[in-house]
Amino acid sequence: xxxxxxxxxxxxxxxxxxxxxxxxxxxxxxxxxxxxxxxxxxxxxxxxxxxxxxxxxxxxxxxxxxxxxxxxxxxxxxxxxxxxxxxxxxxxxxxxxxxxxxxxxxxxxxxxxxxxxxxxxxxxxxxxxxxxxxxxxxxxxxxxxxxxxxxxxxxxxxxxxxxxxxxxxxxxxxxxxxxxxxxxxxxxxxxxxxxxxxxxxxxxxxxxxxxxxxxxxxxxxxxxxxxxxxxxxxxxxxxxxxxxxxxxxxxxxxxxxxxxxxxxxxxxxxxxxxxxxxxxxxxxxxxxxxxxxxxxxxxxxxxxxxxxxxxxxxxxxxxxxxxxxxxxxxxxxxxxxxxxxxxxxxxxxxxxxxxxxxxxxxxxxxxxxxxxxxxxxxxxxxxxxxxxxxxxxxxxxxxxxxxxxxxxxxxxxxxxxxxxxxxxxxxxxxxxxxxxxxxxxxxxxxxxxxxxxxxxxxxxxxxxxxxxxxxxxxxxxxxxxxxxxxxxxxxxxxxxxxxxxxxxxxxxxxxxxxxxxxxxxxxxxxxxxxxxxxxxxxxxxxxxxxxxxxxxxxxxxxxxxxxxxxxxxxxxxxxxxxxxxxxxxxxxxxxxxxxxxxxxxxxxxxxxxxxxxxxxxxxxxxxxxxxxxxxxxxxxxxxxxxxxxxxxxxxxxxxxxxxxxxxxxxxxxxxxxxxxxxxxxxxxxxxxxxxxxxxxxxxxxxxxxxxxxxxxxxxxxxxxxxxxxxxxxxxxxxxxxxxxxxxxxxxxxxxxxxxxxxxxxxxxxxxxxxxxxxxxxxxxxxxxxxxxxxxxxxxxxxxxxxxxxxxxxxxxxxxxxxxxxxxxxxxxxxxxxxx
Length: 835
Description:
alpha+beta; Ubiquitin-like (UB roll); four-stranded parallel sheet; four-stranded antiparallel sheet; 37% helix
């Protein structure tokens, strides 16, 4: 063992040993309990960043820890390899997307290996490989046959820079999620997956995922699906327009119908132009409509966006009170939600309130808070914002005095019985538009024939491979659309001339099932080997950023259910547990080239070693929180590992004797107080680190190891029993560090004269008897009388003793409702509460 810690040397040594011995390659073993841990796979951009390092370090700690707990661990990696950057590189640098992608994969693979991640590399996949996307093309044809994949014309989100369609989920604040260009609304033909067919099941299973998934992610998915229960109500037009006699609206608040003071209609609605025709407002309205139609849906409804509209010159009649209601065309009304027309109640909807204030429209209160007295009741003239909570219906004719929920039901019954409306459930979720006008994606397996119409490519002709002889200009849409050799084909049905579909699939299709492919990555008789999937799936622990909550995670859940219904799988949900780690930031901002705050992982590995980078990533912040990069922090992690190295170096000769497991059986009384204290510390630390790893509290786990290290460093052994205790402490430090810092742990384990690798060595166990026998009994008194007692750690401080007293159920009964005058604490003996 060298005196100095040389991380680069030992890390290369152990990475070679692990790879040569194939220690992370795994197969199905019915005798062992499986554990499938998976981090969201990377896009091969060419370099890993610190966000990758954090994500994959978390997964690797779990994989290594679970192996030591006896689990059969699947920990795979692959590449989300299709996407726009590869095509952009082809345009800018003249390098083919395939060449660019595979070169990046090779480079990033070496970076990941340098970090010591325990992946089973035999399961590596790249989604741009035809042997991979062949199977999703087959699924597409099955979905087409079932009506779950279909083509239609629609208003889509168009990115003029990327020259492709974006799903609603890929528009962020009116801009493209990739290039940040302003998104435009454009009418186009495209392919869709019918995710709306699964809205109720996605909601139902979201409830079942509670406890395993973060509440925030489930809430984001529920909100995106946007289930709304309410009513459709017909408002008669004052004057019939081309045979139309009424406007049908959808509302979730039928209890507010008496408060309607204006109506709003979407610019895209077929009636919008008819409502303004021949009116003085026609020119202004048409100009407004054309302007708003160019904006994306997301841009129009983004929180804080300006509410705009124009009066049509037309009116309708409120069927409940006969009042004349002006009709506006407004930017915040979407044709894709409800009926494309809404009733507006500014007193009880903030969006309507802002619009009414902007255009000087009346506000009428029809809901008062429960229990409001005259002085505190709502007054339209004094309102600064809408009152959106439930309450008591007022100014509402026969319904006045009813609570909101009862009023909703009564109003719905009324419209149904009188025949001018019905009960209705709507969803915000729209079908998933998967057509992309780009080259570097999986071709959609469809041909168009003048005789047979739309024809799916048969299984025996799959995969439809991307041609390599394409020209990348960056103009005029997809290169495939200009490649005659690709477009021209024969119809699979009639054999006559046909044209291939030139759109490719959204890259989120590939990431919607990759976790299944890892179970049998080389299987060539289907998407996956069903028996292997049955053994490994679902994923036990999935790890990735919360930014994927309504993109990848929702799509993967949908796709898994589709495979089940196509009888190509049996899973209801793909991921049992989800951990969303925070970002890595620097100087308070997300790392980016434009801000000049990038920290290169390779530079850090070269300077400090992979173990130091891993320990810093785990120690600097709780995993769910953002981690602010600190040069002082990584220096501190490096110093700690150096000190651990030095401890083993200094102690190895003195403690180079067999461990003494019999020490605990002989009893704590046979060792001196200092050794007893250290031994207790060892077993408490083992317990704490074990509990922390189970709860993903890696920062506190490392802190506990540091505390044990400090105790062991201070300990001065006086005899063989003391040396045995010191050895037990040192061994515990090394083994507890192993999942977090595997290279140095393996090297120090070997330096202690122990030959076996820590990869499969059972986890170090804590001895309950040692901890219990080191505990103290604390007496709990109320007004000087003993009311209870509690076992506590011998090193519990006064605050912990107080907390234990106030948490005790018996004590609670004696102090309930009484004033606490003072609390007397006698350290390690008693707590007396004076009431």
